[in-house]
Every structure is written in structure tokens, then in C-alpha cells.
């Protein structure tokens, strides 16, 4: 979890698991989620363990989320956009846009 | 003239003189240098803005608002300003997922050079040296310290019959949801470094991040971890981060220093060189400053993160005493290592650097890799720091331009000499730091069998040691046996630990173990993107036996 020590400029609003989140233009999604108090972004594929962004630089793939229907996006490399719909992934992915288990 | 920002795949040219992968100090400097010489240049970078990790957020932050960064951070502004003023194509938020190096048009029958890389670790077509002879006297696992010295300035393709030393390389990249193939006469890989994974019990818990991640949060949104923070590990960056976090008002419960005291003696003989380096004053003031303002516990030999669904604290042993500290956030760091995935998948010879204890692409003194037309600059070619990287980027650009005939050697020689001298200044003291901060064995190869090594496939150290005992030949076979390294991160988070564990179990150097064989795509690529790649009529005909015209006629027939 992150605290912003400077007020964000140019607010952008998106949703995470149905909840409205405010970030700033130019933020990456992973950092925006951490700054919004999101602690766990997904449950791991193999063991269903809680996971959160680890490296924030595109290396660890812990921050994978579904963005506007597209699975497994690295949220540390995606820029937040107004109206973006973000959902967390729990467990293994299903083909054909199936529902999370 | 100024930089053109490319925001859609369709805006990319099909061909560039030079494609630079990465927009950190090395990539930006290389691109600026090449554009100034008149080359057409594309810079492709994963991040949203230029600066790489070290200068992340530099175009957005100001010294007034973000006063917690030291003055070194703001040096990045000159680099990004020069870049923005140069005539380059800049594709941000772009992943480069493949690189096919050109095989030289000069070689009628490419074969493995006799003196060339032996015992290579990978085998895409790029492994065949592009010209017959002489090959660079490099092996996969060159001993440390020979980097750049043994290479005959990559004369392997320097044929008087051709004005150019290189052919055309092809890169696969994805931008704004669409993939494109782009060709280039030369490619500079400036993919930078990543943090050396520090696998300790509990490191997969939410609330645990790498120290680099915390620094990225600070640079990108002025964010500090909430609650009590414990930093653990070793290396200068850990203290730099501690200093920045303290200035930003973070609550640091403790810094647990895991530096191996045995390394102090080993580092001592490199001390005179370090004392002449530009890092002495900064390093000392950081170290002392952090020790004055935060609780620093040295000599930590064991570390585990406690918690069930979130980090709740750390348990550790220091000076033979077991202790625990409660924390909401744990930041791990034990140095940085080159990010070699793209270079490795392209088929560049990878060597072991024993001083830095990491694999890196083999390069000559100007950054040429073992593949013609592919150069590597900055921390991705061996750790040297930001200012070193910027100089290396410029050197690589001059070398690349000379190779493709855009600069004569007389034009580049004088500038190269000056840059090489500058580079030497920034290299000073590096061996001291590398030796002093070489992580202790138990943090390179976790002794606790329950420690997760592969975070993606959830493979633990104990499993790896058991399977290694069965006589598995190397990391690649280990991967097929237990899926270690087969997850989405493609081994980035476990490769170094796997090599270290295997080396320890076998009692040999990591150089003998090698590392994962990597293949494109080195970053996720959606099938939809791959399927929608533009195809030439010849390619369509080769696969389907019909021309695009026939296809469209058939489609019309169906619709009728």
C-alpha cells in the first residue's frame, strides 16, 4: 500500500473489481492500485495465494490483471485511462474469456 | 527538429537505420547521438515516459515538488531534454518481443567459427556466427575481467567486398494493442538491469516488494509505503532508497544489512581504485546519513518474512542472535543484474561475469555483441551505473553508425577516444563495490527447502535440490522436469537463483551451470496481435497457396 505525499494532478477515474478508483494521468495502473489501498491484486495460478505487485518494472509478472476484458496485462506497464475497467484474476485463466473460477 | 511520438503501430516506419530498445540513459543517449549523425532512429520502450528506471518520472517531476531525490537524479533531465530535441521516433508503452538478427549477406555458408563461442547455451539460427573468420575469441562463459579486451573489434564481417558490415535485423513489437515487424540495419539493446531476486521465505506475500519497486513508486507518483517499513539486503541502492524514503517522511523501522562480512577483506585490494572514483563522497555520506537517521542492523545472516496473507514483519538472525521486527512493508534488494532476455533470445553469446556474479551478453569494447548488427549498451551489458550507461550508449551509437556506413571511422575515432576515457572514470571503483556487495551464499541459494524460488510456477528450493540430485544436466532440463521458469515471467525471477542452487549442489561455478535458454516472444504477445500482423502477398501465397487477390475473390463469392 502506498501513500501519495504529493497531490496527484489531472485526476483519472477507473474501476477495480467494481470499485471506483481515482488516480492521476500518467500513472501506471499497478502504482495507482497500490496508492488506492489495494493490497492484493490477484490470487496465484498454481496455489491460489494472494499476490501483489513486486517489482513495478515489468519483470516479475505479479501485477497481472484483466483490463477492459483482456487478461494478463502487466498493470505496471499500463497507463490508467478514464473509465478503464480492471478486474483481478483469481487462480488459473480460462480460455474464451470464461469466468474466473 | 524534435522527437516524434509514435502512439500507434501504424505510425511506425517499416525500416530504420537504427532501432534502440529501451529509453533509459543508455538508450536515450544512443538515440540522440545517432539522430545527430543523420540516422533514422526508433526508440522502443516499455515504459510510459523516457528515463528508464533510474530517471523514471524525470519529465514529470520537478526539484521543487519532488525534493526527496538527490542531485544525481536530476542529471537525467539533460538526457531526456536532448532526446526530446532530437529527430527520433519514440514509441513509449511498447514491448519488443522478438529480435531476429541479420545473418550477413556476405556469408555464403555460415558455420560455427572455430575459435568462436563453444558450448553455447542456446540454439536459434542466430547462434551461427555470421561470417567465416575470424570469430571473436569469446566463449559463452568468458572469465570476468576480459570483457572488451579480447575482441578484435568485431572484424568478423568486415569484408572489403562490402561497404556495410551488417544486414537487416527484424524486431517484433507491440504498441497500443497491435503488433508490427520493423527492420533495422543496426539494433542497440539498452534493456537495462533488473534487481537480483532475493528468494527468502515469505517473499511472495503482499506487502513485500523489491527496493527498486519502492523507488519506482516514489519517482512515478511520489508514493511511499504506508506504515512501518523494513529494508533488507545489501548494496548501495538499498541505502540510497533508505535515504530517499527518509527524506520523503517514510517510517523506516529498520534496515537489515545482509552484506557478507567476508567480502570486506576481498574488496580491500580494490579500495584504492574506489577512492579515486566519483562515488566515494556520495557513498559515504549516504551510508553515514542513513545510519544516523534509521536503525541499521548489520551482519544479518538469516531472514524470513512473517505473515499469512500479508507481510507482518521479519524474523532474522544477526551476530548469532535471533530477532524479529514488526512491519507492514518489507523491501528486498541485493544488487542489480543485467536484463538479458532479449539479447539471449536473439542468440547473442552470453557470458558469466564472476565479479558481478551475473550473466551478460558478450560485447566488444564498443558494445557489439556476437551477432552482427546487434549492440548492447548500458547496464543490460554489465552493471556500471547511469552515467556509465549514458556514455556507453553514445559509444555504441557511434560504433553502430560506423558499421552501417553512416559515419567514417575518421569521423568517429576522435569522439570515441574521448568517450572511452570518460567511461573509464565511471568504471572506477566498480570492482570494489561489486566485490564488497557480493551477496552472501545463503541469499543467493536459499538453504530453507520451503523457500519459493519460482514465483510463477511455485517451485521451492527443496524440490529443486531434490531434482538436481537426480542428475539433471542443467537449468533447461530442470525447467522441463518441474516447470521452474516456465511461468509468465519467463524465468526472470528465478533464473539466477536456479543457477546458484545448481552450482552450489554441484560444487562448481555458475559459469559451468549456465542459465535458461530463452526464446521469443520474450514478452507476452496476444495471438490476436500475431494473427493481425501485416503479411506480404508472397507470404500469404507461401502458406495458403493462393494470392491475396484469390482470397478476396473467394470471400466475395461466399458473401454473395
From TrEMBL, chain A:
Any Pfam family matching the protein: Fer2_4
Coiled-coil ranges from the UniProt annotation: none
InterPro entries named among the record's database cross-references: 2Fe-2S-bd_N, 2Fe-2S_ferredoxin-like_sf
Gene Ontology molecular function: iron-sulfur cluster binding; oxidoreductase activity
Keyword field: Oxidoreductase
Lineage top rank: taxon: Bacteria
Keyword flag Oxidoreductase: yes
Gene3D superfamilies: 2Fe-2S iron-sulphur cluster binding domain, sarcosine oxidase, alpha subunit, N-terminal domain
Signal peptide extent: none
Record-given protein name: Sarcosine oxidase subunit alpha
Organism, scientific name: Metarhizobium album
Automatic annotation (TrEMBL), chain B:
Region span, Disordered: 102-159
Molecular function per GO: oxidoreductase activity
Residues in SoxA A3 domain copies: 457-532
Domain FAD/NAD(P)-binding: 177-389
SUPFAM superfamilies referenced in this protein's UniProt entry, alphabetically: FAD/NAD(P)-binding domain
Keywords linked to the UniProt accession: Oxidoreductase
The name this protein goes by in its record: FAD/NAD(P)-binding oxidoreductase
Origin organism lineage: Bacteria, Pseudomonadati, Pseudomonadota, Alphaproteobacteria, Hyphomicrobiales
Amino acid at each position: 500500500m502506498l501513500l501519495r505525499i504529493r497531490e496527484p494532478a489531472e485526476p483519472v477515474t477507473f474501476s477495480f473489481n467494481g470499485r471506483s478508483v481515482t488516480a492521476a494521468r500518467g500513472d501506471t495502473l499497478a502504482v495507482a492500485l497500490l496508492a488506492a489501498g489495494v493490497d492484493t491484486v490477484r490470487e496465484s495460478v498454481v496455489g491460489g495465494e494472494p499476490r501483489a505487485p513486486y517489482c513495478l518494472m515489468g519483470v516479475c509478472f505479479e501485477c497481472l490483471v484483466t483490463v477492459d476484458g483482456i487478461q494478463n496485462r502487466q498493470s505496471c506497464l499500463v497507463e490508467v485511462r478514464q473509465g478503464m475497467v480492471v478486474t483481478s484474476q483469481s487462480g488459473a485463466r480460462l480460455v474464451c474469456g470464461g469466468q474466473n473460477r | 527538429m524534435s522527437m516524434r511520438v509514435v502512439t500507434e503501430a501504424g505510425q511506425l516506419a517499416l525500416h530504420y537505420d537504427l532501432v534502440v530498445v529501451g529509453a533509459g540513459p543508455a538508450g536515450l543517449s544512443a538515440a540522440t547521438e545517432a539522430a545527430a549523425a543523420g540516422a533514422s532512429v526508433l526508440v522502443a520502450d516499455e515504459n510510459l515516459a523516457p528515463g528508464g528506471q533510474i530517471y523514471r518520472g524525470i519529465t514529470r517531476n520537478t526539484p521543487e515538488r519532488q525534493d526527496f531525490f538527490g542531485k544525481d537524479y536530476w542529471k537525467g533531465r539533460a538526457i531526456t531534454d536532448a532526446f526530446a530535441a532530437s529527430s527520433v521516433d519514440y514509441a513509449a508503452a511498447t514491448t519488443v518481443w522478438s529480435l531476429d538478427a541479420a545473418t550477413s549477406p556476405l556469408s555464403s555458408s555460415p558455420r560455427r567459427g572455430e575459435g568462436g563461442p563453444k558450448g553455447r547455451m542456446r540454439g536459434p539460427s542466430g547462434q551461427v556466427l555470421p561470417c567465416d573468420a575470424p570469430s571473436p575469441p569469446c566463449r559463452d562463459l568468458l572469465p570476468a575481467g576480459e570483457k572488451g579486451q579480447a575482441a578484435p573489434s568485431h572484424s568478423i564481417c568486415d569484408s572489403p567486398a562490402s561497404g556495410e558490415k551488417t544486414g537487416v535485423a527484424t524486431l517484433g513489437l507491440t504498441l497500443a494493442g497491435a503488433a508490427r515487424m520493423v527492420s533495422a540495419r543496426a539494433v542497440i539493446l539498452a534493456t537495462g538491469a533488473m534487481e537480483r531476486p532475493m528468494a527468502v521465505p515469505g517473499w511472495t506475500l503482499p506487502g513485500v516488494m523489491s527496493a527498486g519497486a519502492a523507488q519506482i513508486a516514489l519517482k512515478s507518483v511520489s508514493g511511499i509505503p504506508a506504515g512501518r517499513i523494513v529494508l533488507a539486503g545489501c548494496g548501495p541502492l538499498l541505502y540510497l532508497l533508505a535515504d530517499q524514503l527518509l527524506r520523503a517522511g517514510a517510517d523506516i523501522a529498520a534496515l537489515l544489512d545482509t552484506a557478507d562480512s567476508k567480502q570486506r577483506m576481498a574488496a580491500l585490494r580494490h579500495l584504492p581504485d574506489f577512492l579515486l572514483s566519483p562515488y566515494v563522497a556520495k557513498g559515504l555520506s549516504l551510508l553515514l546519513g542513513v545510519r544516523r537517521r534509521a536503525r541499521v542492523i548489520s551482519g544479518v545472516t538469516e531472514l524470513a518474512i512473517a505473515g499469512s496473507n500479508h507481510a507482518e514483519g521479519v524474523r532474522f538472525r544477526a551476530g548469532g542472535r535471533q530477532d524479529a521486527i514488526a512491519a507492514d512493508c518489507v523491501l528486498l534488494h541485493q544488487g542489480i543484474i543485467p536484463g538479458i532476455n532479449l539479447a539471449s533470445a536473439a542468440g547473442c553469446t552470453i557470458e558469466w561475469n564472476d565479479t558481478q556474479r551475473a550473466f551478460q551478453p558478450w560485447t566488444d569494447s564498443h558494445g557489439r555483441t556476437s551477432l552482427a548488427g546487434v549492440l548492447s549498451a548500458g547496464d543490460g551489458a554489465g552493471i556500471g551505473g547511469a552515467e556509465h550507461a549514458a556514455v556507453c550508449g553514445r559509444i555504441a551509437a557511434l560504433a553502430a553508425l560506423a558499421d552501417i556506413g553512416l559515419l567514417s571511422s575518421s569521423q568517429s575515432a576522435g569522439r570515441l577516444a574521448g568517450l572511452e576515457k570518460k567511461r573509464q572514470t565511471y568504471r572506477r571503483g566498480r570492482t570494489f563495490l561489486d566485490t564488497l556487495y557480493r551477496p552472501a551464499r545463503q541469499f543467493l541459494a536459499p538453504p530453507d527447502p520451503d523457500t519459493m524460488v519460482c514465483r510463477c510456477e511455485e517451485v521451492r528450493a527443496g524440490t529443486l535440490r531434490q531434482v538436481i540430485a537426480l542428475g539433471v544436466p542443467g537449468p533447461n532440463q530442470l525447467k522441463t522436469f518441474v516447470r521452474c521458469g516456465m511461468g509468465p515471467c519467463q524465468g526472470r525471477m528465478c533464473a539466477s537463483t536456479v543457477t546458484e542452487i545448481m552450482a552450489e549442489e554441484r560444487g562448481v561455478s555458475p559459469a559451468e551451470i549456465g542459465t535458461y535458454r530463452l526464446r521469443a516472444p520474450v514478452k507476452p504477445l496476444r495471438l490476436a496481435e500475431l494473427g493481425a500482423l501485416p503479411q506480404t502477398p508472397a507470404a500469404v501465397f507461401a502458406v495458403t497457396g493462393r494470392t491475396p487477390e484469390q482470397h478476396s475473390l473467394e470471400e466475395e463469392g461466399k458473401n454473395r
